[in-house]
Amino acid sequence: VKFPYSFKIGQENTMMPGSVFEGEMTLTAxxxxxxxxRSSPDDLEGTATITAGDEQxxxxxxxxxxx
Length: 67
Fold this sequence. Notes:
Elements lengths: L23 E8 L12 E8 L11 E2 L3
Antiparallel strand pairs: 1-2, 2-3
């Protein structure tokens, strides 16, 4: 992966059918160390508080899980 990494997330990406993206939410990006979808110690992570419809969101991966 080359950084900065461009991404787009929309209604079609909800994890639960019938869920909607609306209002404020927390978006998390993680660089996973072990291939498991769950976060593990030593994964690198960053978050951003956004509102549905925001554009040009920037997430800084700035901490180690469990650290």
